[in-house]
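Researcher: Please translate sequence to structure tokens.
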Amino acid sequence: MLLPAKAEVARQLRRYRAWERAMLAAPADLTVRATFEDTGYTLCVLMGKRCAREAADAAERYLRSTPAAYLSELDERPRTASVSARRGPPGTRRWTFQREGRRPSGAA
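Model: Translation complete:
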């Protein structure tokens, strides 16, 4: 697994925290909010996470540890359901219109 350079992770984490403080100080400022969201997205891409808070936490863990320790920590975390366990959408019942009203097909 490729890991980002620690210097870049530290730089992006500093930017994220600075814009987080700015956004909390001025939540109505749309420019500040947009820049904060952009820095969060950058951190997500860098750390391979879907949520900016998770990415910030992962960045802090990564900066505190060695790359080998960080990778072993990732391996120890419980994983979500595997792809093979996923199912398609639930079956839908077809509706037919009969004289007595609307009933699902096959219903008495």
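Researcher: Any highlights?
Model: Helices lie at 6-25, 30-47, 52-64, 67-76.
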